[in-house]
Amino acid sequence: MKEKFLGLERWTTTASMVLACLMLVVASALGVFQIVTRFVLEQPAEWSEILIRVSLIWMVFLGIPMAFRQGAMVSVDVLYRWSPPRFRRVLDAVVSLAALTLMLVILWYGWDYAMRGRVQTMAGLESLSMVWAYLALPVGAVFSLFGIAGNFLDPKRLELETAQ
After folding, report:
1. What is the dihedral sign for C-alpha 122, 128, 134, 139?
2. Over the stretch 3-31, which tens digit does the pLDDT of each residue have?
3. Section 39-46 average pLDDT
4. pLDDT (tens digit, 9 = 90+) per residue, 96-124?
5. What are residue 122's DSSP bridge partners?
6. How far apart are CA 63 and CA 37, in angstroms?
7. Nearest Cα to Cα of residue 157 among 99, 77, 63, 102
8. Residue 148: exposure state from Cβ atoms within 10 A (0-12, 13-18, ≥19)
9. Which long-range CB contacts under 8 A does 131-134 form with residues at least 24 apart?
10. What is the DSSP string of 17-45?
11. Whose CB has fewer CB within 10 Å in the chain, the N or C terminal residue?
């Protein structure tokens, strides 16, 4: 059962990271487009700036699950290094519960905020609802839940292994 969950977690974390990288590509391409239209063509595209912001928001919330999975988010390095091995697992549980609680709060209020934002439109893109920007919170939180649970079941501490 553990291996099946870790396989699912690996798939969800990889998918979220691929989407996060895609959002970085979108933001970069739109940034270049905005520079060309503004300074070369002298006809700025108002809509590109808001799409850059939205893609960066999505990039961050889709990148967080990988950070959780690698043990690079809520980190208590000094306490972890100084603690005996039995206490480390308790520390892992406390950190995981705190992170899960935070993600559940973001999921709950992010979904509520997204549903309230259905009536708003994006400045410069009046045909798009703000719900698409706000959905980054609950979607990222759902992906993060898998990363947090995966890191608890199969801990990775990449920042501790490479720390100097």
Report:
1. negative
2. 999 999 999 999 999 999 999 999 999 99
3. 90
4. 999 999 999 999 999 999 999 888 988 88
5. 125
6. 30
7. 77
8. buried
9. 132/54, 133/53, 133/54, 133/57, 134/110
10. HHHHHHHHHHHHHHHHHHHIIIIISS---
11. C
CB 69 within 8 A of CB 8: no
Asked if 1 and 61 touch (Cβ cutoff 8 Å), the reply is no
Q: Distance (Å, rounded) from C-alpha 158 to C-alpha 60?
A: 19
Closest by Cα among 70, 60, 57 to 10: 70
Structure-token pair, residue 147: 């990363």
Spatial CA neighbour of 162 closest among 75, 97, 83: 75
For 71-102, how does the pLDDT look when each residue is reduced to its tens digit (9 = 90+)?
Answer: 876 566 777 778 888 888 898 899 899 999 99
pLDDT category at 161 given cuts 50, 70, 90 is low
